[in-house]
Design goal:
mainly beta; 29 strands; 2 domains; nine-stranded parallel beta sheet; 15-stranded mixed beta sheet
Amino acid sequence: MPRVDDIRIRHGTAAEWAASTDVLNLGEPVLEWDTGRTKHGDGIHVFADLPYSAPDADPLTTLLGNPINAAELGRLSGINSNVQDQLDAKAAQSHNHTGVYSPVSHNHSGVYSPVTHNHSGVYASVVHNHDSAYAVKSLEGDVSAIEGDIAASVGTGALVRQSIIGGGGGGFAGVYIATDFGLTGNGTTDDTAAFQALIDTLAAAGGGTIYFPPGDYLIAGVLQDTSGANAQIVLPSILDTGAAAVVISLVGALSPPTQFFGDPSILPSGVKGFSVIKTTLTGGTGTASVIAGKVPAGSTIFNNVVVNTRDLIFQGVPNPTFRMLNLESTTGCYIERTLIHAGRLGQNISQPLHDNSYGIILPPVSHSARSKVDGLQVWGYYWGIRSGELTDGSASVWSCTQGIELRFAYHPSIFTMLGLYGCANGIVCDDPTGPVYLRVLLCDIEHSNNGSYQDGAADVYDPANVIHGDMKWLAVKSGVGNIHTLVKTGGTNFITSELA
């Protein structure tokens, strides 16, 4: 099994663990994802030769295995008097010979660290914080205080009480479970008001992470702040005073599939373990958005907010008239393993006709932080992605009238992989105000063969010849294969070559 550093615990299916030849470290907890059973390493044996942990033998280890499961935390709040004996037994197996409970072997100071090396991760309950209250709660100390801390976490839903300070990049004040703050995720109850209230709570706390357990979170509210953000969910508006940015992270349960075709009825949804934010917005023109912010008073361009998404699906309606994620006022973003679609997936999507609709608008020119995308997919919007400067990563756009729009930028953007599938125009820059700098290591292009807009008009649409840079490409037509042709309108300063 592979080791990973940004997840709370090593995990795999029972079959995968049965075939594993890894020797587990002493005290290392691992999880069978499909059975919920756990084992702990002894530094000698592989997984198959180790006994399973008793279901109720070690409640704190159970917390490690699922650190954001509110129901499990509720059970933990009733820890009984035998916790002392259980902690004694665990300490005897620990690398920490001072008697402090240290379930994660890499932390030899005895600090309670469910996630060890992730200084910005969602599940970082107390990450290498040597000032943590847990650092002084030894087996000879106040066990009841440990129980109290767990019970308090259950009561508020905020599992993290310690701030995680990033080097100049802002810090998380906590992880907030959406369903502990009034969101239902049942697909029928309007979660708009609870979602907005939780965003406001994070803003007041200086930032944080919202974890959406599997479910369909319905956003059916009216547009707010119509003269500013004009969105169903309004991001905080923070004046840049030289302080670290406020970081808002939205995180789901599982990664969306990299490719998926069909109707929304068979999309990954809450019942299958995915986290879906679903809007019913059909009205609104111009800048109407589902999620957006605005530039604060006293600034001309900067809203000192960074927005991150991970493992989420954003679902809209066919032929949308709005922007799903409008981040043009933010200073930066990291959009990771995120799927944005307009109610349908596949190459039989009717052409989106409303030119004000975008799947996502990334931060524009002159914002100081880099925009990172990794595994971003957009389906069925007029404009798939709008990119400013200093964007890098991988993305794919499917069945959009315009694939990716480039805007005036002083600094370059770099895509390691850019997929353009069934779009009328692929890479588009129709803004003649200034140069755009772009490098694409590989652009994978596919046109349909059905006589529709998806057959493609221009793979590069740059009539003002403002795109500067280079691109390696591969072009395919459905049912035909490689067509060895890249169609350009303008683009004389954009050097392109076919993948050999």
